[in-house]
Structure formats: structure tokens, C-alpha cells
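Quick one: structure for this chain?
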Amino acid sequence: MRILLTVLLFMISVSAAAKGTYLTSEQFVSNTIGTDALKPKMLWLDKTDKDVISDILSHSYNRMRVRYWQKDNQTVWILEEIGKEKPITVGVHINNRMIADLKVLAFRESRGDEVRHEFFTTQFQQATLNEENMLNQHIDGITGATMSVRALTKVARLALWLNKKVQP
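Got it. Here's what it folds into:
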């Protein structure tokens, strides 16, 4: 009985350890493009935009607008995508049409949080989109975090595509 209780407590603690908020949106924006850009802008989406976004995310997208921050040739996007079952909040900083930084701001799944670590997120730096709205560079996966890796890759693609809408 004691062993069973120990195993259950361990499983609960491991599950809880993966969840967390690591940065707020305000902190990410401030850290990337400065505190003078804290007032967000809105990008209104039409049906064509939603169709492209749905293609990038591989599911329907029903929002009418997306919030972003802009300073000179830089934009910051705070986006969410479902990992396995719950949303992952990701901040993407784009400078001169390339990803300058990508960070997991909040992770709500019970596993797969390895995607929040720098060894993984630095792979996105300098990434751009090709003509098919795919990243121009390969992103290595993480065993046991496949759905989280896919979610972050989709968010990176989406942020780059949205950036093209506001900085043609």
C-alpha cells in the first residue's frame, strides 16, 4: 500500500510540474521590443485570412481579429495553439520578417513541456516562411512531446504569416 501511495504521489507531482506560466504577455513584449510598445494593435481578419490560418493550423479558426505589438520592423504576437488537449500560449518576436525569439509563456498540458526550454526554442531563430507557408528550416522534434512540438511549429508559421499581413 505504501509503495502504491508513493507511486501515485510521484505521478501527480510529475504531472503538475509540466504546467505553469513562465512569462506574462506584458513581460514578453517588454523584453523583446521595449516598454514603449505596450499598446497593442489589432489585425482584422477576413474570410480569406481565416482560410489561410485554418490551413496553417490544420483546424478552423473563428476569431475575427488578432492582437499584436509593433515597433519599426518588429512585431510581437501572443498566440495559442492546442498541444494534445489544452492550449499552449506562445510569444513570437519577429524582426525583419524572421523569428528573433520564440518562448512558451504558459503551458497547461500534463506532459510535453520540454518545448519551453531554450535548447528547443532557439531552433526557430532566423526562421522565415517559404511560398507554401512552411518554415524554411527544419525543427527537430522531442520524443514524448510530439503534439507540443507541432503546436509551436504551427504558431511560428502563423506568426510569420500574420507579420506579412502587417509588414508587406
